[in-house]
Specification:
The chain is mainly alpha-helical. It has helices spanning 20-35, 54-66, 90-102, 113-125, 141-149, 197-207, 222-233, 263-269, 273-280, 295-300, 316-329, 332-339, 350-357, 364-375, 383-392, 394-405, 411-422, 427-438, 446-453, 455-476; strands at 7-10, 39-42, 106-109, 155-158, 165-170, 174-179, 186-189, 212-216, 239-243, 246-247, 312-313. Helix 12 crosses helix 13 (350-357), helix 15 (383-392) crosses helix 20 (455-476) and helix 16 packs across helix 17 (411-422).
Length: 477
């Protein structure tokens, strides 16, 4: 039975390319909504107009669509709580700021950054956690008016009630408790008039009907502050779940320095969306199956209770494993569009080639290489292939040429005739043929590849191998 009350969101700040960590956040929220028949919201948190750009927003939305993570509400989709760009919601925030100030929940703060830093140093020296000392919380209305008259622009701070304990159940970490005395009054609007993340994020979640928020545990300490804001405004709070971050090999949060890659990077490298999704769905989250799943399957098996609170290491080998799984699970038509190698293959043979070499394809370049090896001119021989040809000897390949010229140039006829005339079998028969015909000593099953080549290509490659073996024999002689 679907639970239509579930509504999740992905709320990025588009300051650059979409990376692995943020993508996992989007995926987990999309899966939670999809698995309960709920709704997935995209909200663009772009109040910082200097760092956020429309180009980055469009690129991010393109990344999500490429991965199949379409949103039910948000930019270009609409919904019941527009607008979905935060920079367009300033009037909404201003109304709530005025209400908090009028009801005594917020006050103007004129402290300079230098004054705040001096206070933090003094607190550290005294062995106390650094938090705002409440300097401006006691200003009278006259003092506030005088400072404003002097041209000072204040920030707006939320007045944290003393002596309370904020409790909530985290869907990943379990029961959480925070003392308000440890929080300190915090900024909800900066001195330049821009809205602070803590405020806008909480207010928009409430106004947009968000029921569940899954995010990194670097936001865990933000939650008690946001709960205080929502309580003061009489707004509903979502259920929160804070998951362990993705780290690099060095244990530090994933970044460009230690291996993070953007979605654009992965797409350019040739990764399939299915591979990325199956990998990320299992980073810090477990499934009952190791088989590749489509989005519906990933959603049905997704459970916040299975999210790890501990950091999870980004594993490029594991990502490549899921790429292999995705290639094997894809239809031939899906791979044909992805490989884009029609121009390298005679008409009507693309699907046969894909089925022949599928097990040796990880990225599009692999497929195009095999297209050239099968249908192009004789491919270059790697060192192992040259050694295998030389080891088989000129007599072997002269016999192979003769057999092929007689018309035995499909795999079965060629190998049976060659075995009969030379007495060679097993690896000593197949390895030199593979080397001569494909230029390599490893690769896909030989029969379908050789049969796709056609008789003329087979003969040309065997002639080349015979000449090479004879030349090497003469040099040794």
């Amino acid at each position: 039975m679907s639970d239509v009350t579930v509504k999740t969101r992905f709320a990025p700040s588009p300051t650059g390319a979409l990376h692995i960590g943020n993508l996992r956040t989007a995926l987990f929220n999309a899966l939670l909504a999809r698995g309960h028949g709920g709704r997935f919201v995209l909200r663009i948190e772009d109040t910082d107009r200097e760092r956020c750009s429309p180009e980055a927003t469009q690129a991010l939305m393109g990344n999500l669509r490429w991965l199949g993570l379409d949103w039910d509400e948000g930019p270009e989709a609409g919904g019941p709580a527009p607008p979905y760009h935060q920079y367009e919601r300033s009037a909404i925030y201003d109304a709530y700021y005025a209400r908090l100030e009028a009801e005594g929940y917020a006050y103007p703060c004129f402290c300079s950054e230098r004054e705040l830093e001096m206070a933090r140093r003094a607190q550290r020296a005294a062995g106390q956690p650094p938090r705002y000392p409440g300097t401006c919380a006691r200003l009278s209305a006259e003092e506030v008016a005088r400072k404003r008259a002097e041209g000072l622009q204040p920030a707006l701070r939320f007045r944290v009630p003393p002596g309370e304990e904020i409790r909530f159940h985290d869907r990943v970490h379990g029961e959480q408790r925070f003392r308000t005395d440890d929080l300190g009054d915090f900024i909800i609007r900066r001195a330049d008039g821009t809205a602070a993340y803590l405020f806008t994020n909480a207010v928009d979640d409430a106004l947009m009907g968000i029921t569940d928020v899954l995010r990194g545990d670097d936001h865990l300490t933000n939650t008690p502050r946001q709960l205080l804001i929502l309580r003061a405004l009489g707004l509903p709070a979502p259920r929160y779940g804070h998951m362990g971050l993705i780290t690099g090999d060095d244990g530090a949060p994933l970044s460009k320095r230690n291996g993070s890659r953007s979605v654009d990077d992965l797409e350019e490298a040739g990764y399939l969306p299915e591979a990325i999704l199956n990998y990320l769905a299992r980073v810090g989250h477990t499934y009952d199956t190791d088989a590749p799943l489509d989005l519906d399957g990933l959603a049905q098996g997704f459970d916040p209770a299975r999210i790890s609170p501990s950091p999870s290491r980004f594993d490029p080998d594991h990502l490549r494993h899921w790429q292999d799984e995705a290639v094997q699970a894809a239809t031939a038509e899906r791979l044909r569009l992805w490989l884009a190698m029609d121009a390298l293959v005679p008409p009507g043979y693309v699907e046969e080639l894909i089925n022949a070499v599928r097990g040796n394809i990880r990225f599009p370049a692999d497929g195009r290489e095999w297209a050239k090896r099968v249908f192009g001119p004789p491919p270059a021989l790697d060192a192992d292939a040259e050694a295998a040809i030389e080891g088989a000897g000129a007599a072997f390949f002269e016999t192979a040429v003769a057999v092929a010229e007689e018309g035995y140039n499909r795999f079965r006829g060629l190998t049976e005739a060659l075995r009969e005339r030379t007495g060679v079998k097993g690896k000593r028969l197949f390895m030199p043929l593979r080397a001569a015909l494909t230029g390599r000593c490893s690769g896909p099953e030989l029969q379908p590849v050789v049969d796709l080549m056609g008789g003329e290509r087979v003969k040309a490659r065997l002639h080349r191998a015979a000449a090479l073996a004879a030349e090497r024999s003469a040099q040794e002689g």
